[in-house]
Every structure is written in structure tokens, then in C-alpha cells.
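Hi, here's the filled form for the chain we discussed.

Project: internal
Contact: R.S.
Residues: 191
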Amino acid sequence: MNKAKPSIKKLSPEQLSALLQTLQIRFEKNGHRHKGMEWVTVLAKLNKASDKLWSLHEMERTGGEPDVTAYDKKTGELIFTDCAAESPKGRRSICYDHEALKSRKEHPPVNSAAAMAAEMGIEMLNEEQYRQLQQLEPFDTKTSSWIITPVAIRSLGGALFCDRRYNTVFVYHNGAESYYAGRAFRGSLRV
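And the returned structure, exactly as it came back:
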């Protein structure tokens, strides 16, 4: 029971212009997330990776507010991560994965975190990435975010999520089929 998504993964010139402008404003406003990086470098990477722009647009459209949070020196890739203060509004009230979604006989959510991430062409954050993001500034102080769950936990029906309370990052567990109005997922994209 997934919401219909456009089958064409290409942005119109207007959408592209709006996205690049939004990303530039956010990049320039939040220099603490990417010290030493320049927008011209980011723009050059984006212009060479047109296949990634639709995914960035989806991150933005669903409320993720993507921004550059790291540079991988080994691969030369920029890493964009959802930097919305709270879990992205357009991705809330979803269970963990497709298997969990299928197991809900009554009141199933509209989608799962794993399926949405795959549809958007992004990766869900794992615990280490989530903790690294929290080093930049406080996130999820009122909400929570699903994270990639180890197979050993998932095979027993569980899934992990994180939040930040009392100036501390906490990792919790729930049944993978559970879903809440205040829980979504955060993703990342390499460009």
C-alpha cells in the first residue's frame, strides 16, 4: 500500500534550480557542518552527478533538509545527510522494513523506512553515522529515527532507533512492525 511515486527520476529545470538554491543557502548558513568546504566545489560535484539530484530532491521533499556533512577522502565523494532538526515529517509513521509491513494485519502503516530509502535512492543511517551526525549539533530532541538494524536483532523481530535526550544519544529497540507519529528515518547520499 505504497503512495504512488513518479516513475520519472528526473527534475524539471525549475525543480533543479529551486533545489540548488535551497542547498546553497543551507550550505552557507551551516558552515559548522562542513568546515573548509566551498560551495563551488559542492556545485561542481552536483553538476557531474545529475543522477543523484533526484534523490537529493526526494530528501528535501520529504522534509530531510539534506546538507553536506562529510567528505570521503578515499573515494572523493561528498556525503549529504538529512539535517532537519527533528525526524523528517514526510517519512514519519512508518515501520522498519517490508517484512514488518507485511506482518501488520490491522492498521498497517503506508510504508516502511527501508522501502522509502530504497525508493529515494538513499541509505538509512547506521548507529555510527547517527552518532557522527549528532556531533555536529543536536538532532531528534523531540522525535526519533530508525537506524540500520543488525541482522541478528532483525531476525528476532526487532529493530533499532535513536534519539537525543538529556544531551545524550540513546539507542533503543522496538518490534520492527511498530510505527509512531514521531519516528521516521534519516538518510545519507554519496555524491
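Let me know if anything looks off before we file it.
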